[in-house]
From TrEMBL:
Ranges where the record places region Disordered: 609-630
Signal sequence annotation: 1-23
Residues forming coiled coils: none
Alphabetized UniProt keyword annotations: Membrane, Plasmid, Signal, Transmembrane, Transmembrane helix
Protein name: DUF2207 domain-containing protein
Stretches assigned to the DUF2207 domain: 27-167
Amino acid composition bias (Gly residues), ranges on this chain: 619-630
Domain spans labelled Predicted membrane protein YciQ-like C-terminal: 274-436, 449-565
Length: 630
């Protein structure tokens, strides 16, 4: 008895010393009365006595309560949390509870009013379940009384556990210090049907009191089947919604692709040196790739060159500021809509247009009118993008993602991270797909190596971005929700991008044209000897070269075709020297073929930025958490 009195007296003296040693706001005492009901629900009343000097505690205090418990075997589950009352100095006090992803933050006080300096007594009463760990011989309550995230010291902390059944708890243990500490600077005793715990040393900021006590079997009723079912849904609702949502999205995409997205079977591919009848170079690119890549700039470049070869325009300056001039040749009836769109733009500029001098709005108008013209050429005859089906897939995916968000109830910070992080896989997947498509083109070994390195870098960025997303979200939600979010955001975006590629389909007529284009690509990329060995292949004359050159540009294989023609000229098989002067080109370039090597880059650079851009100026167990002042 004397020893007990001495320890209490020492605790009081230490508290007095700590109170004088710590300047600023301080918790004078933190007491928790924990009533363990027979149904396993804890009725907790926390009495927090503070001394406020206005440093941190200005409007009041806040209390963080974790709602996820991790058992020693690694099992993680969610507990309930219901606030019954909040008072200050015996009077009801305004409070607001917000979800933090991992728990609930209770902000006590009025933002428009300041708390007077001096002593105040806050009292919070709440209910929580699933805090009892059931065992074979006995049950156990492990409870982090104060939490270990308070930003100012706690001079003394205590807890009193009472069993409503009248049974007596046993083997009380207390721990003090920071999270994971095994220090036991506290007194733990059993008296009647309760257990009492008191610290013997002041707690520094970010230190707390954790208690553990054994409960006799029968003092708390084990969970019923209905409770277990309710808890299972509470723990797994996010996964249930995610799995069924993904299944719905996947089923829609698969069945839609089977019915509408599969291309007809490819025919026999043989080298072709003739152009598909009535198919413009831009439409070839559209049929072959299912879209006009790089916003249609390459296809527009090919079309400008095709207009020049056909005599409708003359090009001045192939290697820097490309100027297009209209000739007197009248427009024929069968000219494709994409070609007419460019000629109409030339007419609006009085027959002469320098792409590099165009304003940004004019460039957008040129590209828009051109793409509309190519779409009109296709008109669903050769390729169907099935945009309605794709947009419906987006709606289904969005509905599944929204249902998941409702099921897990993310906080505002995590919600913003989920939304904004979706841009990362969107752009990374687009880059990966672009590099994968470009592998079809005949590259030198150096360019193949660079292509592979580019894919490796983007894939590494994808993995790193996904892990970073999980790590950032883990801070607010825990690994379970973070992994679900990874599947929803990165997986969902990737699924829909793959679906966008797959849902577009070639018609039967388009499949024949596609086989023809594949054969033409094969011919344009063959070596000189292989091309000469093709039966009935035409001579590689300037006229033949010019006829196929716009299509080679549209298909992204103009370099091997241009190199083959230059090698043919040098060999002297069609001309006495390597000179070549097309009638549709006006300029001072002695080597028009070298000028052509820069033509596509020049047009793309001119379309990339208009004149306006260049000239403008510009602790394990239940309980826990922490708190602070605000």
């Amino acid at each position: 008895m004397t020893k007990h009195i001495a320890r209490v007296l020492a605790a009081v003296l230490l508290s007095i010393w700590a109170y004088g040693a710590h300047a600023g706001d301080v918790i004078r005492s933190f007491n928790a009365d924990i009533l363990v009901r027979e149904d396993g629900v804890l009725d907790v009343t926390e009495t927090i006595k503070v001394n406020a000097d206005g440093t941190d505690i200005q409007h009041g205090i806040f209390r963080d309560f974790p709602q996820y418990v991790t058992t020693p075997d690694g099992t993680r589950y969610k507990v309930s949390f219901e606030i019954l009352s909040v008072t200050r100095n015996g009077e009801d006090e305004p409070w607001e509870a917000t979800d933090t992803g991992l728990g609930t933050k209770i902000r006590i006080g009025d933002q428009l009013q300041l708390v007077s300096t001096g002593n105040h007594i806050y009292q919070i009463r709440y209910l929580t379940d699933r805090q009892i760990i059931f065992g074979d011989a006995s049950d156990r309550l492990r409870w982090n009384v104060t939490g270990d995230e308070w930003s100012f010291p706690i001079l003394s902390a205590s807890a009193h556990v009472i069993l409503s059944s009248g049974a007596q708890p046993f083997e009380p243990i207390a721990f003090t210090g920071s999270r994971g500490s095994k220090l036991a600077d506290a007194i733990a005793t059993v008296s009647g049907r309760g257990a009492t715990f008191e610290t013997t040393h002041a707690l520094d900021p970010f230190e707390g009191l954790t208690i553990m006590v054994q409960l006799p079997k029968g003092a708390v009723a084990p969970p019923t089947t209905a409770q277990l079912s309710d808890w299972w849904w509470r723990d797994n609702l996010g996964w249930v919604v995610l799995i069924y949502g993904f299944a719905a999205v996947f089923a829609y995409m698969v069945f839609t692709w089977l019915w509408f997205g599969r291309d007809p079977k490819a025919g026999t591919i043989v080298p072709r040196w003739d152009l598909p009848m009535g198919i413009s170079p831009a439409l070839m690119s559209y049929i072959f790739d299912g879209t006009l890549g790089d916003e249609g700039k390459t296809a527009l470049t090919a079309t400008v060159l095709d207009l020049a070869v056909k005599g409708y325009v003359v090009l001045d300056g192939l290697d820097h500021l490309v100027t297009i001039r209209r000739t007197d040749l009248p427009i024929s009836d069968g000219l494709p809509a994409g070609h007419i769109a460019i000629l109409d733009m030339l007419h609006a500029h009085e027959g002469e247009m320098s792409l590099a001098a165009l304003h940004e709005d004019d460039i957008e108008a040129v590209l828009l009118n051109f793409k509309i013209g190519v779409e009109a050429e296709n008109d669903g005859r050769f390729y169907r993008q099935n945009k309605i089906l794709f947009h419906l897939g987006i709606i289904i995916s969005g509905a599944a993602a929204f249902a998941w968000l409702v099921a897990i109830d993310l906080n505002e910070t995590a919600m913003k991270l989920v939304f904004f992080s979706s841009l990362a896989p969107l752009f990374l997947n687009a880059g990966i797909w672009t590099l994968l498509k470009s592998r079809r083109n005949p590259y030198s070994w150096m360019k193949r190596l660079l292509n592979f390195l580019g894919l490796a870098i983007l894939a590494g960025m994808w993995v790193f971005g996904a892990l970073l997303f999980c790590a950032m979200l883990y801070e607010d939600t825990g690994m379970n929700i973070a992994f679900q979010a990874l599947l929803v955001v990165w997986g969902g975006v990737t699924f829909n991008q793959i679906f966008l590629v797959l849902i577009g389909s070639t018609t039967r007529a388009g499949a024949k044209i596609r086989d023809h284009i594949t054969g033409l690509r094969l011919y344009l990329t063959l070596g000189e000897m292989d091309r000469m060995n093709i039966r009935d292949a035409p001579e590689l004359s300037p006229a033949h070269f010019e006829t196929l050159l716009p299509s080679a540009i549209a298909l992204g294989i103009e370099k091997p075709w241009r190199a083959a023609f230059k090698a043919h000229l040098i060999s002297g098989q069609s001309l006495t020297g390597p000179s070549y002067a097309p009638s549709w080109f006006v300029g001072d370039d002695d080597d028009a073929i070298s000028g052509l090597s820069r033509f596509a880059e020049s047009v793309a650079a001119s379309l990339h930025s208009g004149a306006d851009d260049r000239n403008s100026s510009a602790g394990s167990g239940g309980g826990g958490g922490g708190g602070g002042g605000w």
